[in-house]
Amino acid sequence: MKNGQKSNDKKHKIAQTLWAMADPIAAANACRVIETEYVKEEGEWRLRVYIDREPPVDHNCCEAVSEALSALLEGRDGFIPDSYFLEVSSPGLERPLRLEADFLRFAGQRAAVKILAAYEGKKEYRGLLRGLEDGKVLIEPEERGKPSGRVAAIPLEQVAKAKLLYDVKARKV
Fold first, then answer.
1. CA distance 129 to 108
2. Mean pLDDT of the chain
3. Can you tell me the distance from the alpha carbon of 101 to that of 77, in angstroms, rounded to the nearest whole number?
4. Which fold has domain 3-89?
5. Cα 114 from chain centroid?
6. Which residues contact 164 (CB under 8 A, 6 or more apart)?
7. What's the pLDDT tens digit per position in 10-48?
8. Of 36, 47, 160, 165, which one has the fewest beta carbons inside 10 Å?
9. What does the alpha-carbon distance between residue 57 and residue 5 come to, in Å, rounded to a whole number?
10. Edge-to-edge strand order for the sheet containing 44-52?
11. What percentage of the chain reaches a pLDDT higher than 70?
12. For residues 129 and 95, is the Cβ–Cβ distance under 8 A?
């Protein structure tokens, strides 16, 4: 195994463990974890937790989750070998889509979907999210910036990464 692979495995394991630790804390604050990351940016490690709820997450919710999670992490010496910054925030305008419920909730909005293996000759689709049906993400791909009129049905287990797309011109997701 190469060093890069070991590093990615370590980061992935830390992010998964962070999710498991943050999930009950988020639930106690009437929200849910939608993504966790352990990344190095500009020479510094960052533990990121993205939380969501309806009504949208506010500063007080982020602060409550951050404080409780910080206290829990302090009790786990050695879990994270590097010094880090903990960040807890809302997912933002281009929020990740991970769960089945996400693909249903945001149907009708523009999204980008990256897949593990090419489907119809493509590994990335951008277009109008049509929802989820029979375990398949439905997306109407754009061609030259306009809806194609056809729908690609991508098995959820083939989705590597998906997110909403913010429309700068229309100023909406």
1. 5
2. 90
3. 35
4. GMP Synthetase; Chain A, domain 3 (3.30.300)
5. 13
6. 93, 94, 95, 97, 106, 109, 110, 111, 129, 173
7. 888 999 999 999 999 999 999 999 999 999 999 999 999
8. 160
9. 35
10. 32-41, 44-52, 84-89
11. 93
12. no
Tell the residue number behind the tokens 């409780």, with chain if given: 68
154, two tokens: 């991508």
Assess contact for 131 and 112: CB atoms under 8 A: no
Q: Which two tokens stand for residue 96?
A: 């990740």
How far is residue 75's CA from residue 126's CA, in Å, rounded to a whole number? Answer: 43
Q: What does the longest C-alpha to C-alpha distance in the chain come to?
A: 54
pTM of the model: 0.78
CB 15 within 8 A of CB 36: yes
**Count of CB atoms within 10 A of residue 71's CB?**
10
Residue 63 and residue 1: Cα distance in Å, rounded? Answer: 39
Domain positions in the chain:
3-89, 100-164
**C-alpha–C-alpha distance, residues 15 and 40, integer Å:** 13
CATH number for the segment(s) 100-164: 2.30.30.180
